[in-house]
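Comment on the following before class.
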Amino acid sequence: MRRKIIYISDPQCGWCYGNAKNITDIYHRFKSVFDFELLNGGMWVDEHSPRGGQQISNYIKERAHQITAITGRSIHSSFFELIADTKQILSSLEPSAAIVLVKELKPESTFVFAKQLQDAMFKEGKPLDVLRTYLPLLKHLDIDHEKFENHWMTNQNLENTFKEFALSKFMTKSYPTLLLQEGDNVTTIASGYFDLKTVESKLMLLDSSVIKQQDNDHNYCKINRDC
């Protein structure tokens, strides 16, 4: 059994958006060496999903400057307009269910789909709780849109999504988190936004099985906080 890289993220998480290109690059570079799995965290679900409004839009806008400064990924003004709408619910459920379904329909496109989904919201200001946001993504990745539409918000897919939330919460309390699973042993590679070259170097050492003891305590996060 190959070792597995587990990435725990959430579609509504700004730091996860900032880290999306990094993890996608990691996946493409190392998918021939490690198995990969993306898990959704379930950051904002049901009664914990905040309603949009000017107050939360201003709050997130203040934090967005730091995300952009550190990750280099900007958040468009259309996103802040979206979440300033009091009719908008900032829910992780619908986009997470979309990712869970794509993992079933076309697993090799999971990481790209998750990135494009976040780009649609943070860069284009599109809501993630309506089908029309997903249709161009599905077309671009050659994923059957009819199967997606028929299964996206079904009881079975939602049940699978909530099971994934529970597993993620068991494994971490913050997003994003990058883990290595070797048999029954799971270790943290990075917690929070990570530097791409640092994590690439770590995985190259794992691939060559040459892991120096002094690397064990290295901090792979530029931000070690609840993201």
